[in-house]
Amino acid sequence: MRLMLVALASAGLASAAIPNVSQAQEAIAACASQQELEQVLASDGQLAPDGCRNLVITDLESDHGQLCVLDFSAGEDPGVLDRLADAAVPTKWWVSCDALEAARP
């Protein structure tokens, strides 16, 4: 499911109602390539390739259901290139948690 979250975030899914209460937060590795993610997984998180970031997923309750915030900037001290990319592409994406679950094969 987490790879699905990264794919959906990269596809540009965003925007929802402002949530009322934060319920849960989880940090996972998100990488620009499958090979980099497999390196992280094989090393049990000890390796951190340049193309990887910590993705923090926060579940929030809103009047319209459960929302998930995908935050690619949480806990990061980005370099110059990352700052330029962040200026061009949002680092937080809002998605329906139900839609993410439904999209799972």
Provide the low-confidence segments as ranges.
1-22
**What is the CA–CA distance across the termini?**
9 Å
- Average predicted confidence as pLDDT: 74
Structural class given helices, strands, pairing?
alpha+beta
SS element count, helices: 4
Helix content: 25-40%
How many strands appear in the DSSP assignment? Answer: 4
The largest pleated sheet is described as: 4 strands, antiparallel
SSE pattern, N- to C-terminal:
HEHEEHEH
Strand order of the largest sheet: 1-2-3-4
| Overall 3D shape | globular
Assess the beta-strand content as a share of residues: 25-35%
Radius of gyration: 14 Å
Task: Walk me through this protein's architecture.
With 105 residues, the protein is an alpha+beta fold. The chain is 32% helix and 32% strand. The protein has four helices and four strands, in the order αβαββαβα. The chain has helices at residues 2-10, 34-42, 80-88, 97-103, and strands at 21-31, 52-62, 65-71, 92-96. A four-stranded antiparallel β-sheet has the order 1-2-3-4. The chain is globular and about 40 Å long.
Question: Outline of this structure?
Answer:
This protein is of the alpha+beta class and 105 residues long. Helices cover 32% and strands 32% of the residues.
Topology, element by element:
Elements (H helix, E strand, L loop, with lengths): L1 H9 L10 E11 L2 H9 L9 E11 L2 E7 L8 H9 L3 E5 H7 L2
Antiparallel strand pairs: 1-2, 2-3, 3-4
